[in-house]
Amino acid sequence: MKKTSMVVFATIASLFLLSWIVKGMFSEGSSPYLDGFLVTLAAFLTLAIMSFLYKDNPYYKFAEHLFVGVSAAYAMCLGFWSTIVGNLIPRLSSTVSDFFQVNYIEGDYNIFFVIPIIFGILLLMRLSPKAGWLSRWPLAFIVGTTAGLNFVRYLRSDFINQINSTIIPLLIDWNGFGDFFSNMNFSATGQLVMMFSNLVIFVGVVCGIIYFYFSKEHTGWFGRASKVGIWILMITFGASFGYTVMGRISLLVGRITFLFKDWLEIIS
Amino acid sequence: MKVKLLFAVILLLLLSSLSFAQDDSAEIDTSAVVEELVLPAPPGNLSGVDKPNDHGHSIDLSWELSPDDGGGLNTVLQYDIYHWVPNLMLELNLVRDSISVIQKIIRKTTNGIIEGSQADSMKKVFEKLSRSELFDVRNSLTEYVKKGNKGLAEACKSYPEGGAWLFLDKKPSGTSTFDHIGSKEFKSSGFVPDFANLYYRVDAVTADGAKASSNILGPIQSSGQWYNTFRTPVVFSVLLFTLLTVFFVQKARKGADLYVRPLGGIEAVDDAIGRATEMGRPILYVLGLGSAADIATIASFTILGRVAKKVAEYQTELLVPTYDPIVMTVAQEVVKSAYLDAGRPDAYKEDTVHFVTQSQFAYVAAVNGIMLRELPATNIYMGKFFAESLILAETGALAGSIQISGTDEIAQIPFFIVACDYTLIGEELYAASAYLGKEPVLLGSLKAQDYAKAAIIVLAVIGVILAQFDFGTEFVNLFEVVN
Lengths: 268, 483
Hints:
heterodimer, A: mainly alpha, B: alpha/beta, Immunoglobulin-like, Rossmann fold, 3 domains, six-stranded parallel β-sheet, five-stranded antiparallel β-sheet, 15 helices, 49% helix
């Protein structure tokens, strides 16, 4: 280990201990030193993850591995204890329920619960070199079933409802140009804005679909319509980008609040 | 002991059910004339039909407004809707309630959940029982409800004897319809039996509490339908799309040259693999956070297959960290097959496709680490992505990798566009799988999709023209899909 690294490590370790002791001394909970340790640990792990903004470093690696390991193990335990032990076993066998010390639910026995068990075992077959091919059956079932179910769902939402929503009049309350110009205003529910809005929807949908038409080369008028389509898409994406970035900033604010309020107690 | 206990419990229930029925008959059957109050005119012509296009157990009611609703004395505040039920139903409802109480005691969720004196008294009775006794009682009561439900249709025939009017709901003045959506679950207290004689009544109620009853509707029966006519547009669309797909698949199988326009992002895949080979660095393929059931992930598998085949041919390293265990399993199969197709099964390594974790940001942290440590020449993100999209793409850009992305998550596409070199937008991802695979089935379905899109444009243009000239309503209704 280089000398600089050792100095950095020693500094961080000292700061950690200092923070732990100070937080423990001023914490008002029933177990102040444990609370102090947990807050300090959370703060240092947050800073370790944020250190990635500078460059990859051992502290980021530590936080990353800890995060991945804990989350993977937690997900596995949760899946096993809540799904298999918590829901499946109590509906299938009183003996196994007794073994896991969970209550057997006699009236809820259902033979269909055996199917996911079989599929689960078949999936595990891939660990065996000889019977590995059996794991393809549940996979085929999962992929095939979902594709079939989604077929109808998407056809309805992306095809039928799309047509339904695009059928809108382009001229609203139209009584000639004279009436249009004399009553023109920029109210959100006014004739001009409503007509413009409907026009954008119609042109946007038609040109957007043309952009996603793959069977024809995008040249000539088709290419121009496709360009309009991609422009509309890009404007939509721009709006979406700004909106989402604002959401992310609120996440950052949450973390910074934790550091300055819960840990350092600089802000109230 | 158990049998005795069970009898005691049921006896208690029956006794309380009798008192309950008596109490309620006094409380809910308030059609008697209230003296000193000015009665409103009753609602007229109460009629009802079995709710169409449903699984049964529901009746649609309609009535004419009381003359004193919006006119006349204008005193009607609301309409109370009543449903006549035989005593057996009241009894079964009580048993259902006790089953629910037992369930809550078994699951230890009673605290703060049970409300009402009857539920509390039931709780007191059941709480003294051991767990096994609770299960026994619950199963016996469930069996009792099951058997009782079979006799409901017969009990309904006894109208107007041996039953009571049960309050269903209230509707504000000016309302002239009510859909009685019953439950199909016999364990539920809202259970409405099919093919049983049902009776309804609607009372106009004033602010003073004066009530006037409509005519009695009944007997009327509910039943389920095999075909939901509201979904007819879906059936036609499915048929049309299936026919188009079959037609184009057959055409492709016969060797027809089905043109698919080149996609920038996909054209770049080969170059990116070549770049990785020349640089001697790996290729990182991220399948996203979707499950194996997501269409985007399924499309991504096809692209992965193509990438893996090229990688096997060029003997480049491939890294596929996965988020979902099922996705990992499918991806392993895909990559293995690709190596076989390329004639390099020996080069396939089991840990090429590996599981990371099922926690979103832990997964991102791990993939970011891979990007900075392994320094892949090319990062390919294809599938379903959420909040992690920008973090991944930004880190990849910092690491100097060529990046190709594709997702159908509209909210994430902007992040990929700004941080990646090539992005497949939405449906381009599906098209890419067909374009790369060149398989008749995929090409055929892509062609069918294109024709469906053309149909959308044509129908939208026709619809807009018709809507402009006030003929649009009927046309729009053709595409109305009601649940």
